[in-house]
Amino acid sequence: MLRAAFQTGSRAGLGPQLGRLRACPWQSIALRNKSDSCDECVERSGLGGLDIQSTERSKAAVLELTSDEEVDMALRGLGPTGVAIVDFSASWCPPCKLIAPIYEKLALDYPDIAFYKIDIDGENVRQTVADNDVSAVPTFVSFRGGKPVGQFSGADRTALQLMVDALSSAAA
User: Which residue segments constitute the domains of the chain, with CATH numbers given?
Assistant: First the structure.
């Protein structure tokens, strides 16, 4: 099913087996007060006011790729004009956790762009990490027709929005 979905460029029907994103990206960030909720933590981080959708819906919007082969299939599945953004991140990276809800929200808002996530510590993605010159996390790489066209590192909400806007206009 995964191969067929990537070959057709469809993300529909892949289900939660590929949505390996945490239910709450804030869980591993130390809360200042044991009574703090995730909502309070998000509010303090300056990311409050985002209309973050339910986790199940977010899982379908951002696909986690766990091998070089999956990455290759996903990028080839874009065809000559398809566009995608890959978020290279790590589970131990606080800035990655801060930008994750924004990335997930953008994935929901821009269905014409494929959104992928790769954990750089995965044993089966080392070649992909090296090929994309990832030396810091998070690193975002944009693709058009399977070829990289842009890249930046850091949890920069403005830079991420600019990358999405550029791809969105190219996809239209």
Answer: 2-171 (3.40.30.10)
